[in-house]
TrEMBL record:
One of its GO terms (cellular component) is endosome. This is Solute carrier family 66 member 2. InterPro entries: PQ-loop_rpt, SLC66/Scramblase_ANY1. It comes from the Eukaryota. Keywords: Membrane, Repeat, Transmembrane, Transmembrane helix.
Amino acid sequence: MDWIISDELGLTVGHLVGWGAASAMIVGGVAPYIPQYRQIKKTQDAEGFSLYVCLTLLIANTLRILFWFGKRYELPLLIQSIVMNATMFAMIHLCVTVKKKNQIIRARERIFTAQPDETAHWLGQRSGIVGGEKPHRFYDLDRKYFWAWTDFQSYVDCMLVFSVLGAAITYLLIEFSPFVELIGFLAVFTEAMLGAPQIAKNYQHKSTEGMSVSMVIMWTCGDLFKTAYFVIREAPAQFWLCGSLQVLLDIIILFQVWMYRHNTAAARRLRRGD
């Protein structure tokens, strides 16, 4: 009887630990962005956060979702990718809204796709049929404005195009094992480069004002744990190598926090009007 109770208790504890670990895996990935989201909402300033961080994670997690169809992995990781994509769209929506609010002079709008009536207007104007001023919203694939659009829908449209093209290619090559493995590697490597856009943004401004230090600390802790897990579990080399690269980029960002601390403090005083 004791043996049965012990077995049942062990099974229950095992399930609880498994569910707890799965929940931590899903929630832990998005947790670092909560302080950054709150900081942007509180200060109404999105200039210190690089939207390319969102692009990096959207691409990495979309590739990971496609990889699941070719090579099944743990379901919590799949759910984590879906939740992360939703979180990144929430971050983008906030940043776009805040930047629009802060415009003193209304700037020309940049969008990923032109509306049908705007396209017709532009074509008519080129042919001399339609007069009047050019529309303020127009289609532009200039890389200078890529991922710097002024409306949220453009970011959704861009990722929708990427997802549909990726799904179509994956469907055609799903039986080709090297292609499936390549998707998995690109997903891991893209995620490993997560910190690079933020490093570039900090270097450009010579300041970390607007960036949540709590977010970066949580990145670092999560990446250290993840890399250690890969090493202990003897995961394929690309996993722990990419994890190590992530940790290195996190450390560089933390070094920037220290190196630009005086500029950051000055920028903060300027924003507060001190």
